[in-house]
Structure formats: structure tokens, C-alpha cells
Amino acid sequence: MTPPSRRDHDRAQSVVALGGGHGLFASLQALRRLVGELVVDDLTAVVTVADNGGSSGRLRGEFGVLPPGDLRMALAALCGDDEWGATWSRVLQHRYSGDGEMRGHVTGNLLIVTLWELLGDHVQALDWVGRLLGASGRVLPMALTPMDITARVRGLDPGAPDALTTVRGQVEVATTAGVITAVDLDPPAPEACPEAVAAVRAADWVVLGPGSWFTSVIPHLMVPDLRRALVETEARVVVVLNLAEQPGETGGFGPVDHLAVLAEHAPDLRIHTVLADARQVGDEPGERALLEQQVAAHGARLVVGDVAHDDGSPRHDPDRLAACFESVMADS
Description:
Blueprint: E1 13-19, H1 21-32, E2 40-47, H2 54-63, H3 69-77, H4 83-93, H5 107-119, H6 122-133, E3 138-141, E4 148-154, E5 164-168, H7 170-174, E6 179-186, H8 194-202, E7 205-208, H9 213-217, H10 224-232, E8 236-240, H11 255-265, E9 273-277, H12 278-281, H13 285-297, E10 301-305, H14 318-330
Helix pairs in contact: 1-3, 1-14, 3-4, 5-6, 8-10, 11-13
């Protein structure tokens, strides 16, 4: 008798979600709802670590550490809905006010940096925080090397509108007034987190997006060992499209544009499913047909669902997104 495959769908699945900031927070909140319900039995977040602003940027500059902010947000997203989880999530996300040097710092950032200093190990420290919170999954950095995002941007020089200018820094790239044509990392080949690479290779599903496309999603494909794992993994890759353009970073972008940029940066990435919100796809037949053609060119399938909040904001609703994830995993 042939032994059951690691991809046996009668069992719960191993999922790795990649991204950063609020986009990854939304994915993890949704996926956390499926943990322990015979849908997901192993959940890992792999987080972009190139932030240079706010509390993270200050701690990075003072201590020479990875920026902890997006790691903190991922941990908070994995906290449970019970009193313990809700309380620790609030503690982790608490931002200090006042007029002194602590103004703007976040409790979770300080906790993570404290454990990094005490233990001298990025992964071990994050695992300890996860244990304290009772997190429903593991949080890992995409790389162990502090880095900056650089972008080639068109339209910043009024006298030469087609000229390309290099913009450096996550904050600067995310708020540029020009049109981003490509992004890179500096250093160009940062050391990938070995545990993140192993998790991607062992996963049943990999979720990429939503989030800031150039500064949170695509950077994962710029880390050589992590990119190789994403291309070679047997996991089914799900790309979750954003609900709206992001002024400064993806101004004027629709679903087709997001996919086109992803293809330009990672033409060898095999995508299984593209998940889009019904309202973002639009009601025009031609608009949807164009997206379907783009998805088919990737050899993928398009799943359109109602995943946005009802309040009109460009935010994913965790319960609706969870239902879509569950449907996607059950149908494959």
C-alpha cells in the first residue's frame, strides 16, 4: 500500500505566511482562526525586517539589531481571543506617550530587543515571546542581517520625468512621490533565517500578501536562500491581493498591476491560487477577464470572495478571510 502523502488533505495543513506590517497582521489573524480546527495544525509567520522608521528604526540605529516592529505585530496577531491573549496583545502593542525619550516606543519592541540582548539568538528570543503570549504559531524574521530597501523610482526629477532615481529606506520608498519600477535589498544577499527557509520547504501552503507590495511582500523574494525555497517548495502558493492602491508605493495599482509587478520580480514563482476581493475585481466583464488572463498566465486559479470589512476601509475582515482560506485549502 502506498503511504499517505505529506499533502494528504484529510489532515490539518502546515501554513507559512510571509509579509509584514498590517497586511501580514490580517493574514495571521485569519489563519489563526483555523488553527486546531482540523484545517491548520502548524502556522509560521516569516516577516520582512527592513523597517527604518519609528520605534523600530530608533532601536535598530541604537543597538544594531533587526527592526522589531513587524515581528511584534505578527506576534500580536497570533494572540488568542481569550482574556490572556487579548491582554498580552494590548501590552505588546502599547505605544508610550509623554514628552521624554520613551515617547513613541512600543512595549513589544522593547521586550523583543531585551530578549535578543539576553539570549543572543533572534529565533530563540521570538519563540520565548510567543510562549509568553500563548501565540497560535511561530514568528520568524526573513533574514538575520539588518538591511535597507532601495527602489528605482521614475518621475522625481521635474526636468527629466523619465529619469530613474534611487530611493533608499523602507519609509522613503513607501512614501515616494514617484513611480517605483523595481526594488532591491542592501546588502543584496542578506543571510536568510534558516528556520524560515526550512518552514517554507516543509509547508503545505505558503501565503504571500496582502501588504505593502514593494516594501513588505516582494522583499521576501530578494533574499536568495528564501527565494530559492519559495521557488522549489512543494507547497501551494496563495497570493492575496490588496484591497486598494497604497498612495506613494502603489498609486494607481489595481489587481492586475500587483500581479504584474510580482511576475517581474519573481517570474519563476509557481502560484497555485490568487485570492481577490469581489469589490476590488469590479463589475465590468472586461476588467475581470483581464485579471483572469493574468492569473491563468501564472498557471494559477482565481478565487474571488467577499473578504473586506464592511466599514469601507481597505482592510481585510479576519473572519471572512479565514473562510476563504478554509475554502481554498479544502478545494485543493
